[in-house]
Amino acid sequence: MRRLTNHKIRYSWCLGALLCASLTACTSDGTIDEVEPAEQVPMQFSQAALSTPAKTRGSDPLAQGFLVSCYKGIGSTDVQQVMDNYEVKYKVDTWNNLSCWNYVGTKTDGFYKDQVLRYWDVSAFPYQFYAVTPCPAPADIPQFVLTNSQFAMPASAEYVYQTCNNGVVSSGAEPYLLAQVECTDVSNTNDKDMLAGGKTIAKSASAYSRYVALPFHHLTSKVRFLIYNNYKKEIPNDFKLYNIKIKAASADYVIEGRAFAADLTSGSIFDGTFTDVTKGSDAEKILVQTDDDATRKCDLKVAVDREHAYDCLNPTGTSVNDGLLQIPQKNVKLSFSFDVYGVEFNRNFESEDKHIKYDMATKTIHYNDVEIEGTYDLAPNTINTFVIKVNEFYPLTIDFSAELTPWTDVVGSIDTNLEK
């Protein structure tokens, strides 16, 4: 087996006595069993980071480590497993300044099984890595399937959507974040993030000549809603929206997902689905709601453009929220309800479908569950900003658009060298 082209490395890398000092990569987990020459380069995890808002090793869930599997020879007729659900922990050694991500150890050392040092095989690129963070509890690890053909999490990994009522966001649940990386060749600069469309991972400088950096991504999607006024007529002195309600109008809208599974022979982890789901009731499908309160009204004399748009998740303007967690799903329909005060017409009226009603005495138009045209896909690791631009009130004319923002910036989420 040949050396990696660039094999200079700090061999004092946090391995204690190097359990494989005999140079035999013996194993008890059914993975590869091979003799490695002394000059071979160990496989190392030098970086790991989460999607924004940025969290690194010192904060949950990375503080609890991660679970990883690895295969080599991807795309060939001789694909081999290198790591089988390895538990990776951050080992702190401030005395020797050798703190690092470590996977070598035994049950006695606190690992859920005996794990041995692995080496790069220059003849077997590309490698692929599949990982989840935080690392599941030892009793749960066997229920996680991380192979080159299948990724699966058990029903105990429950994802729950969020709603916002008068600026208060429900708790929701996102128990695990995911990573899928391909190391295409011996170069340390060509690794690909398979959950970000195969983008090249921007790595920080490291003492290691060849290492794996894992950017973890959100399986969930996020939604946020902005409103602004494009009303071309003369604007009344008191011109506000209130009692705003935005609702998922899809009959089968999913609010909880369990037992996630993906076929990796035909796509990435993000192409998987939850096999056990809970669909929302009519009341549960209300994503955003604000009551008639002076501090929560959308002042259309202020929200006159995109820059000054009213944020439905922050009705009082006193907090910041980048979106509500939602279960990934396709063909989502949305409806919009609100009251608008200050529009003057010369008579009362009600639409045939009962969705629009004007009360001349209070100068108020009531809009109830007006469906937005079109459908929208809520993709993993994406923030969906729905912009509602009101052009006219009767007949109701609005421009409804979706701005999609990747939840993860690869450069921003992987540029912290955790060995420092």
Structure write-up:
The protein is mostly beta strands and 420 residues long. It has one helix and 32 strands. The strands form seven sheets. Strands 11, 12, 18, 21, 22, 26, 27, 28 and 29 form a nine-stranded mixed beta sheet that branches. Strands 6-5-4-7-13-14-15 form a seven-stranded antiparallel beta sheet, with no helix packed on it. Strands 8, 9, 10, 19 and 20 form a five-stranded antiparallel beta sheet that branches. A hairpin with a 3-residue loop joins β8 and β9. The two termini are 32 Å apart.
Quick overview of this protein structure:
The chain is mainly β and 420 residues long. 1% of the residues lie in helices and 39% in strands. The chain is built from 1 helix and 32 strands.
Which regions have little confidence, pLDDT < 50, spanning 5+ residues? 5-30, 52-58, 409-420
State the helicity in percent bands.
under 10%
Round the Cα radius of gyration to an integer and report it. 26 Å
The total of beta strands comes to 32
- Determine the structural class based on helices, strands and strand pairing: mainly beta
* Contiguous helical run count: 1
What is the terminal-to-terminal distance? 32 Å
Strand content: 35-45%
Instruction: Describe the main β-sheet briefly.
Output: 9 strands, mixed
- Let me know the average pLDDT: 83
Shape: elongated
